[in-house]
Structure formats: structure tokens, C-alpha cells
Model the fold of this input.
Amino acid sequence: MTDPLTHRAPDDDPVCRYGYDLAALRKHVADVVATLPERCRMFYAMKANSAAPILRTLAPLVAGFEVASGGEVAKARGAGDVPLLFGGPVKADREIADALRVNVTRFHVESPLELHRINAVAAAHGVTAEALLRVNLAGPFPTATVAMAGRPTQFGIEEPALAEAVTTARSLPHLRLTGFHLHSLSNNLSADAHLDLLRFYRDTVTRWEDEFDLRCAVLNVGGGIGVNYADLDAQFDWPRFAEGLAELVTTFPAHWREIDFECGRYLVAACGRYAVEVMDVKRNHGVDYALVRGGTHHFRLPVSWQHSHPFTVVPVEAWPPGLPRPATNGPVTVVGELCTPKDVLARDVPVRIRAGDVLVFSHAGAYGWEISHHDFLSHPHPEHVFLG
Ligand SMILES: *Cc1c(COP(=O)(O)O)cnc(C)c1O
Done:
């Protein structure tokens, strides 16, 4: 049977294609959502992948989308009447106004100035906007590869400035402060560490309630559940997490009516694959290279995370008669078609690769195409195939 991801007819251009398995996506996300305990809701952070078929697949399954720009609001609207949470570190007046016009009433607010900005736009529209204050917690946190908080970043309000932000939020008539937003980690692989993090959130927010004499109704615990690219058999243990979460949530105050997750990577990474044809194999200064049609301008994730991305080799027997067919038995470094030594997808992989074989990179559904510099060097874009 021909695989639509890797297939190519003799006269076709070399394989260079993203494939998304929408049936697998539907099943994975439905399984995750089904195991959430009461009060917990799963939103999709659409910056991970905002392709229309992905959004249409997810819209009926999740509680809504987390958006971070006017452009994301527009794309989300294309997927139906989905509830939207509006976050992101910079929001212009026009984006706030457009969001209010399409009934985005909850904002994740990143600074005191932004509180004023949203209040003013809401006033002009004669509405009240719901606000969660995004806080950059002081820590300490469980380990993860990228920390958004507990250290200097451009995100959120630091804890020492929180009291004043709370006072400001309460003084603004077109804002309703309903809780807090805490997105502190990225790519966390440990279910136990994630439960520890939520326990830490519970204790911190409970302390703020006392300190500021307020009642939190909504707690957004962000995303950051990870994908193990280095060892595909050792993924985040969701069943263990869901079990621990069910127990943990019973210790949250009863008036916290909503505990929101906004995951990106964990929901969509596995449904995407990136298939590229090997155009050449060579040895240079003692290192074997496989050069593919494609590269980091389509799939920047490995360079952005400085990792070697997992792939499998689909051997292709067809080869034009009369041409030499270079090959390596590895270790081999897989590079793309860009004129920069940084265009590396995988390093020192012990595998046999011949020119003409096709490499399939797995777990390419999140932060793949989405974060890449597509037009650098003006090569053609890959095909995008949505199956199921
Ligand atoms: C990127 C982002 C997310 C999603 O993060 P993942 O690691 O993909 O789960 C959630 N919330 C905020 C505020 C983000 O910036």
C-alpha cells in the first residue's frame, strides 16, 4: 500500500511534505479531555499549530482556544463559534476591540498598563471584560526545559508588583478580576513534577486570596506538558497525571469554579510528521551528511530547541540507472537545503541512509511549520496533507 505521506511517482518532484493524522489527533485529545476531573477544562493554545483542519478537528473537543493575536482570533473564528481566551504579551487597542466584538470576554493581562488599555477599550464598547492577572511567580519550580517564570522574562507581572496590579484591576469599572493565570513551564515530561507545580499554584493563590482579600473564581494553570523527543517511548504519563489531578483538585477551594489548562504541544505534536527525500549523501571532514529537500525553514523545531529530532528511514528502491548512489551506514547528520551550517535536523544518528530514501520526522505537529522562516532562500514550501 502506498503511504500518502512518503509516496512519489517517478515524475514527481522530490518528497517534501507535512502529513497530519486528524483521526489520531481526535482520539488523543478526546482521551485527554475525557479523563479531566470536574472543574478542569482543556483549552488549546493555538500558536502550536493554527492550520484550519487542526482547528476544525479540535473545536468540538476542547473548551475553547487560547489566542495571542488578532490574527489568531480571526483564524479561530474560521473554526466556528469557539470560546476564546485572549493572552499574549502585547495587545494593541485594535486587537482588543476586535476581540471584544467577537465576544472574547476573558483576557490574560500582562501588566498594569494593559489593564488600563483593556478597560478603556471595553468602556468604549460598553462592556465589561473579564481579566486574569498573569503572574511571573518567584519559584522555585520543578525542572523543565524552558521556564517562563521564576526568572527574568517579558511575561506577566512579578510577584512583588502584584498587590498594586490587583488594586488597579479592582479600581477599573470595565474590568472584572476573576483570577490568575500561571504559565510557568514548557515541555515538562514528568507527571509528578506537574502535580507538584499545581500544588504550588494552589498554595500560592490561596495565600494571595488572604493577602489581597479576594476570592479567585478562575485559575488558569497554562500549558507546558511536554513531548519527549529524545526517547519516544518515555512520554508524559497522562493517566498518572489525571489520576493525581482528580485527587489534588478536591483540595482546591470550592469557590474556584474553573481550573483551566491551555496546552499546545501535548495536544498536537504527535499528529504531525514531516517527510523529506534525501537528495545527496556525502562525507566532509570526517562527518557523514544526508542532505534533504526541505530543512529548518520548514521545520525549525530541532534548531530552536537545539535537539536532534527523531526520524525513521523509508527505504526507496527506485533509483535512476547511470547515477551513482551515495550511502552511509551512519553515524549521519541530517541537514537541509539552506546555505547555512545551522540547517541541521538531526545529528550523529546511527542509521543507514541512501540518496533517494525518504526520512520521516515524527512528532512534528506542534511548533513545526508554525515557527519556521518559510521563505528564507525562496525554496518551494512543502505540501501539507491532512488525513482522516
Ligand atoms: C505557548 C503557551 C501555551 C502553550 O504551551 P505548550 O508548551 O505548547 O503547552 C500556553 N499558554 C501560554 C500563555 C503560552 O504562551
Remarks:
- Residues 270-387 form a domain with the Lyase, Ornithine Decarboxylase; Chain A, domain 1 fold (CATH 2.40.37.10).
- The chain has two domains: 83-263, 270-387.
- Residues 45, 47-48, 66, 87, 183, 186, 222-225, 262-266 surround pyridoxal-5'-phosphate (CB under 6 Å).
